[in-house]
Amino acid sequence: MGDVDGAGRALAYGMINAAAENSRENKIVKTCMLAKGYTMVDENSPLLSTSQPAQQIHSNYADAYYNTAIAKHFKGDLDAAIADYTQAIELKPDYALAYLNRGRAKHDKGDLDGTIADCTRAIDLKPDYADTYTVRGVGEQEKGNLDGAIADHTKAIELKPDYAYAYYNRGNAKQCKGDSDGAIADFTKAIQLKPDLAAAYYNRGTTRHHRGDLVGAIADYTEAIQQQPDLAIAYSNRGAAKHDEGDLDGAIEDFTKAIELKPDYAGAYNNRGLAQQDKGDVERAIADYNKVINLTPGYAGAYYNRGCLRYDSRRFTDALVDFSKAVELDSSNDYARFRLWLIRARLGEAEAATTELQTYLAGRANGKLDDWASKIGHFLAGQLPEPEFLAAAKNGDQKTTTGQLCEAYFYAASKHLFSGQKPIATDYFQKSIATDKSDYLEYASAVAELKYLKNQK
């Protein structure tokens, strides 16, 4: 597997409650979870009486609106809930819990500024209530203020040291900051405090997965499934980890289970397609990519993956259509642009393809100027000599170097093939395969090219 700017693999990351698909990656997922357990006013409080003082009557009315707001909130009627929370606040301006839960409802509607504002007001009124800091922290994280989020969750923990959700949410924020050690520590503490918290196992699994700890990731995904058997995304991510381990049958089984639980789960179809592709089952892989495109027409990764299959089947015109669509949907998709260059070069359009690629690289906004993807692009566009390109592939740790060499030899072989230098091309395709990076799409393409060259003899 590769990261977003790395291997030519279509792995994707999303969220438990939303399918935030990424066009270049296998489905590893993280999420934020609000602390649950809304505080309810006693529903058995005395009935209103005209003999009560006006202040008490207003308070009782405020409690009534608050309780109906909670009920509406649980039912998902967010606009009505917010209206009732607002009525409660108008009747009782110092009603901290009404501000807090109106902030929750606004979060559920996607109004993060409103969430933060309401929670801040609740903190002004009741600064010792841990829940409020946690909810505001989630809002801050989703707005991108990770330091603010971590500070809020830390305050919640200070106020309530056994608050599992605060540790969990702080772990999420640390994960987003790239502090994987801190994230794992917080998820582990959340699990110690609440052993049935499926999301904590799940997110610890995603963190371990990103670190390459596949055994630990699979164990965590499995525990998340045991705690929440209908958690489709945990099956999909466990499938991704099994795929990375080389257990294609186990991966396909998990992706299939995820699809059974969530029939419209485009990411699971995409990942199953990748596993089918690596097994050599082209027709089933294409069927899965077709399903992804049917479910989510804007899923650029599915077009890219299907395009690679069509490329390997020498259906270059069809592949050209798929890669063009992938670029249309995601203009920053470097690898789709590289494949476009390969097809156009072999179809006799090398000059025009090179000019187009050079123009893209000159204005490329994603990644760094000297990252690996940019080196591939400059090599294909004739701006980086082959010796320097191959040397650059060896820059990194062993895992990174192996993946980059798999890609480098494939692209170098392709250029030699297009110029009629079949012996050199054959040698380089063999070197690409020798990296044993069988989960790379360049590896699969090298295998296909070698097979075709042997059949031509």
Q: Per DSSP, what share of the residues sits in E-state strands of 2 or more residues?
A: under 5%
Please compute the radius of gyration using only Cα atoms: 27 Å
Number of domains: 2
CATH architecture of the largest domain: Alpha Horseshoe
- Largest sheet descriptor: 2 strands, parallel
CATH uppermost class of the largest domain: Mainly Alpha
Give a structural overview.
The chain has 457 residues and is mostly helical. The chain folds into 2 domains: 11-30 and 230-456, Serine Threonine Protein Phosphatase 5, Tetratricopeptide repeat (Alpha Horseshoe), CATH 1.25.40; 54-206, Serine Threonine Protein Phosphatase 5, Tetratricopeptide repeat, CATH 1.25.40.10. Helix content is 70%, strand content 2%. It is built from 23 helices and 2 strands. The chain has helices spanning 54-75, 78-91, 96-109, 112-125, 130-142, 146-159, 164-177, 180-193, 198-210, 214-227, 232-245, 248-261, 266-279, 282-295, 300-312, 316-329, 334-346, 350-362, 372-380, 386-393, 398-418, 422-434, 441-456; strands at 11-14, 25-29. The protein has a two-stranded parallel sheet with strand order 1-2. The radius of gyration is 27 Å and the shape is elongated.
Give the secondary structure arrangement, pairings included.
Blueprint: E1 11-14, E2 25-29, H1 54-75, H2 78-91, H3 96-109, H4 112-125, H5 130-142, H6 146-159, H7 164-177, H8 180-193, H9 198-210, H10 214-227, H11 232-245, H12 248-261, H13 266-279, H14 282-295, H15 300-312, H16 316-329, H17 334-346, H18 350-362, H19 372-380, H20 386-393, H21 398-418, H22 422-434, H23 441-456
Parallel strand pairs: 1-2
